[in-house]
Design brief:
Structural class of chain A: alpha/beta
Strand order of the largest sheet of chain A: 3-2-4-1-5
Largest interface: A-B, 86 and 86 residues
Order of helices and strands of chain A: EHEHEHEHEHEEHEHEEHEEE
Oligomer: homodimer
């Protein structure tokens, strides 16, 4: 049977890929991906054939993968982070219904929420919501509704795609919504260019976050009511009942 | 400076660890962890010293790590999945304030939400909420509030710790709450013993999920209004505006 692996390569740095992902890339016949991510891999697989399409040509990229598989080649379709979180997995399964002779297997990776959280400390230590601020394919009203729901229910919130050239003020609008339901002093974190050149983190309050400029290569964390700063990191305790005398109950 | 790495080893299978995690484990002086996870690693590092504590001795385990570091040894504290998602990272940072001479670095891993989603297809293709159904350290009222908020805002929902011996009916209670706000036909997925012996997945409706028995080694996914089944997998499309004639707009 023809085979395509949809591979999450992690946040950027080669070593943050799983051992399994590396094996799949080493053993496949051709690697298909977005131009930028393919370039991250090329130096590690100099002998390998790469086929790329630029941004906004996701469907073409998927069909390219299925056509290669139909020609009997084992294909690795690569995505940054994990392919299942705002990635290509869904579209691959959707288009895959037209290619029943091709098996599609997902190889999970470290998504930006998890990688960014690790840089900042432990902001995702308790229940959290992941929201993309891109309104390219989702109405802004739906996004607003989710932001308010997550804020009111005291989820930690992790934002993907917090802003772009066309949506400069989206993070600001999101902060203004959250400020109606959360204190100004809520601890937040910014992780930019995770595991890439220029990696940067910042810890700030929700009030301060409102004034920050971010881009598509940034992941933003907004704490819950228990999130706090400690030694230059942020952490969200797992339990509410922290008893500092009898610590056995903390986790 | 003394150094502790807090390492997410992924869902279970050795190869789902990142290359970086493997390097840290190979280079460290001692591996500290929960007995069960240490046993998963021992065969791969037969020469390495392991120090373990059983469940519910999380604080003791953290202090063991800091004491080893204080003795000048490089320590790897291991957690399954990612250490930042309901894991040990937060407690390590908390206790770490008492050991300012020790640097704590997080090494992210593939968490169960991402690994389970990959097995089921692409349920996390759009905004999602992660909720633990364990009320060991969180009041059940808070958990209920979050379930209802996530259901009403049409998040995909991923449940960790869906039930245990003492909480047999928690998933059922969660389903009954969601059924007040979501259709009975909502597509759900169950991923049990991810990347371990006995791995199993099931796709069912929310009505059917209500009757399922699960355990602590299971991750449960409840779709949003767009989640659907395709070829024995489930997928949540990234965009709302799927135009099957002009596919360029799907992702």
């Amino acid at each position: 049977m023809n085979k395509i692996y949809v591979v999450g390569i992690g946040p950027g740095e080669y070593e943050q890929m799983t051992i399994r992902a590396e094996k799949v890339l080493r053993d496949c016949d051709v690697i298909v991906g977005y131009t930028v991510y393919a370039d991250l891999l090329r130096e590690h697989f100099p002998e390998k054939e790469f086929l790329t399409t630029p941004m906004r040509q996701e469907e073409k990229r998927c069909r390219l993968a299925f056509e290669q598989a139909a020609a009997g080649r084992t294909v690795a379709m690569v995505c940054s982070g994990d392919a299942g979180v705002y990635g290509m997995s869904g579209l691959m399964l959707e288009i895959g219904t037209e290619y029943p002779q091709t098996e599609v297997e997902m190889v999970p990776g470290v998504t930006a929420a998890v990688a960014g959280a690790a840089l900042l400390g432990a902001p995702l230590g308790h229940d959290f919501a992941v929201i993309s601020l891109s309104n390219l394919l989702t109405p802004w009203e739906t996004i607003e509704h989710r932001i308010v729901a997550a804020a009111k229910a005291d989820f930690v919130i992790c934002f993907y795609n917090p802003s772009s050239k066309k949506r400069k003020d989206f993070l600001k609008k999101a902060c203004e919504l959250m400020l109606q339901h959360k204190p100004e002093t809520t601890i937040c974190g910014i992780a930019a260019r995770i595991a890439r050149e220029g990696e940067r983190t910042e810890i700030c309050t929700l009030q301060e976050l409102r004034e920050r400029q971010t881009d598509m290569f940034t992941t933003v964390f907004v704490g819950n009511s228990e999130t706090r700063a400690a030694n230059g990191r942020i952490l969200t305790p797992r339990g509410y009942a922290v008893d500092t005398d009898q610590r056995g109950v903390i986790v």
